[in-house]
Amino acid sequence: MMEGLQLRPTRTANWTSNVGHWMSVDVSPDGQTLVFDILGDLYTMPISGGKATSLTRGMAFDGQPRFSPDGRKVVFVSDRDGGWNLWTMSLDKRDTVQVTRGKTNMYTSPEWTPDGKYVIAERGTKLWMFHVEGGSGLQLIRADAAAAAGGRGGGGGTDVVRENGVAFGADARFVWFEQRRGSWIYNTAMSDYNLAVYDRETGEVTPKENRWGSAFRPTLSPDGRWLVYGTRHIRDTYLRIRDLKTGEDKWFIGPVQRDDLESRASLDVLPGMSFTPDSRFLITTWNGKLWKVAVETSAATEIPFEADIVQAFGPAVKHTYPISDSATFTVKQIRDAVPSPDGRRVAFVALDQLYVVDYPNGTPRRLTSGTEGEFQPAWSPDGQWIAYVTFPDSKGGSLMKIRSDGAGGPQ
User: Fold this and answer.
1) Residue 255: is the preceding peptide bond cis (ω within 30°)?
2) pLDDT, tens digit, 9 for 90 and up, residues 10-21
3) Do 112 and 68 touch, CB atoms closer than 8 A?
4) Given this model, what pLDDT does residue 187 score?
5) Which of 64, 72, 287, 351 is deepest in the core (most CB within 10 A)?
């Protein structure tokens, strides 16, 4: 399974953890078992919690597992052959199948079709469907159908540039997913993602949720009644729940796991979550823990877990660099250089300390004797003062000034 990786593990770090961040979790069809990922390895565990059993190990990154409809296999993403691809593995570890091939594509958030014959996942930025026994796959949604779905984009674009987060409810005809319009940006305007449904019979895409805080990671109950999805509320991420029979949509629980709305969402905008087979509880993760949340009351119960982590590393890379311990040396990085109003002196920062030098052939001299970092000098119009900022970690930043000859010390 590891033949494609160029690095070979030469070291391991071993510890036992009851905490894991950005864990995607799924519930088996019989409701007895969880599968989840920690640090690029897959684990199974009874739904009540306890000791987790490793399903995969090694240097490869394995993540985002989902149970097959018959509960015998999981599909997951992995780079074990040297590229990012979709794989399936039987729970007895006897049968591991590479579903997709190639070294240049990205795959995210795989999900089985209810008949267990296909897997739908994001490839690149679009949804593709692959037969579990292999093949080249088929792009699921036509460009004109996606464009007709509407929505707003935080990146300012009008075209759908990403489709991800597939989910099925009770009817295999309809594929729920999240779609993004416009490119990702920092300090988002919030309305980046919206939810939509793809009709496998007609090929049409219908928008289902478009919020100011975005809507992402749709998760449907097996009975087809409940929809849970993530959204941003001011600075925090919450889950909302919708009764698909009545249309009532309300806050479910939060804050939860921080979303990846303002970056590339390389493992989706939220980790995977799952309903129990009776549709009464949602299994999800936040604060490094697994939780069981009651649909009717939003009451959350922690699912305790303990996982033996075996983190493999490649060969240690060490280089020997000579470092001079002489009394003086050449500073390699000069920052924030600014000339005085008369052009005869230059203030600058070296080694996070404030200096002044007569221009062009003077000797630099420090203006202060403090140990705090000093940055961004600015001259007064008469050249008598220099203002600058400090930022000691212990107490935060200050705006300071000092005479340009250093007299009197900083103020």
Assistant:
1) yes
2) 999 999 999 999
3) yes
4) 84
5) 64
- What is the distance between the alpha carbons of residues 308 and 388, in angstroms, rounded to a whole number? 50
Helix, coil or strand: residue 219 = strand
Nearest partner of 259 among 190, 162, 167, judged by Cα = 190
- Report the chain's C-alpha Rg in angstroms: 28
Q: How far apart are the first and last CA of the chain?
A: 64
Residue 383: its pLDDT value, please? 97
- Rounded CA-CA distance 34/276 in Å is 10
User: Over 80: is that where the pLDDT of 152 sits?
Assistant: no
Residue 318: the pLDDT is 87
CA-to-CA separations, 265 to 109, 138, 139, 287, 391, in angstroms, rounded: 11, 23, 20, 19, 32
Kindly tell me if the per-residue pLDDT of 144 is higher than 50: yes
> Rounded distance, CA 22 to CA 254, Å?
15
- CB count within 10 Å of CB 357 equals 15
Q: Are 9 and 313 in contact (CB under 8 A)?
A: yes
Determine the average pLDDT of the residues in 358-376. 93
Task: Compute how many other C-beta atoms are within 10 angstroms of the C-beta atom of residue 223.
Answer: 15
How far is it, in rounded angstroms, from Cα 221 to Cα 215? 17
Residue 402 pairs with which residues in a beta bridge? 386
Count of residues making up the chain: 411
**H-helix or E-strand spanning residue 299:** none
Does the structure show a pLDDT above 90 at 314?
no
